[in-house]
Amino acid sequence: MTQETRIDITRTRRGELDCWRLRVGDTEAWVAEQGAQVLGFGRDGRQPVVWLSDAAVLEPGKSVRGGIPVCWPWFGELARNPAAVHAGVPDAAHAPAHGHARTRAWQVQDAQALAGEAAVLTLALAADDDGPWQGLSARLDVRLDAAGLRVALHSRNGSGQPRTISQALHTYLQVGDVRDVRVLGLEDARYLDTLAGWVEKRQEGPLHFDGEVDRIYYTGSPCLVVDDTGLGRRLVVESEGSGSAVLWNPHIDKARRLSQFSPDAWQQMLCIETARVMDDALVLAPGAAHEMVLRLWEDVRL
Ligand SMILES: O=P(O)(O)OC[C@H]1O[C@H](O)[C@H](O)[C@@H](O)[C@@H]1O
């Protein structure tokens, strides 16, 4: 990247949400302040890397279907989590899926265009003063540069007790046709098949999407690759500080039950969710902090 590469960051609105647009040369990312949710990432004139539903609703209080929702301080159904995650929560069975962070207003801490380098945005979610999540705070650093998109989720336990949480950067990826895609890097990994009674299985070969997939992988590899022959590209999802990943595609029937989701949209998306879930849940000692990083880029084959 040269000093002349255009880099900027601007506050703007999409629908009813306050957002930030990060721009580095011909690459752009969008982030909503609500939920610190990345809403888009891609290069001019190419298919997006990050998928956003054409039925997405950009309104306060609603998690947007697509982008990278931040699931925190729990992932999925709270009651399905290890007991330590919902200890002290009075009505875990009725807690909202994927935690409260994705629909809350996060505070902007920093927004900078670093000449010749990157556009960076930092958003923070203050700790609750009381209640079951008292003392737990989060921060999300988003950085766009010539290498791609980097998203880092910091969790901090400011309480006087050890705390266990679960979390995910729930990345929706754009693909040509999910039936022609394979995910590499999961070979031989243990996984929980949530569609088959949460039994543990082992992945054989690359992952294909022949039907609904909703699995929690214990990832030995920090680097997963979406090999997309339809779009002639590979998407690389690299993680740090994460030992699990959720792989999801709703296929035909579940697509009909999802909010903000067109009936055929399952064909053009899949989720790779960089996570700390189930056996890999995150234990934070009093005063401790943790960083989980996702790096995402497109590798174009000619
Ligand atoms: O509809 P949402 O609450 O956004 O959840 C969307 C999906 O998230 C994860 O991938 C879960 O593993 C799925 O079971 C769930 O359907």
TrEMBL record:
Protein name as catalogued: Putative glucose-6-phosphate 1-epimerase
Keywords in alphabetical order: Isomerase
Reactions catalysed according to its record: alpha-D-glucose 6-phosphate = beta-D-glucose 6-phosphate
Molecular function in Gene Ontology: carbohydrate binding; glucose-6-phosphate 1-epimerase activity
PANTHER family xref list: APOSPORY-ASSOCIATED PROTEIN C-RELATED, GLUCOSE-6-PHOSPHATE 1-EPIMERASE
Organism: Orrella dioscoreae
Homology family: Belongs to the glucose-6-phosphate 1-epimerase family.
Coiled coil: none
Enzyme nomenclature, EC number: 5.1.3.15
Source organism superkingdom: Bacteria
Entry annotated with the keyword Transferase: no
Pfam (any one): Aldose_epim
InterPro entries: Aldose_1/G6P_1-epimerase (IPR008183), G6P_1-epimerase (IPR025532), Gal_mutarotase_sf_dom (IPR011013), GH-type_carb-bd (IPR014718)
Catalytic residues as annotated in Swiss-Prot or TrEMBL: 170, 273
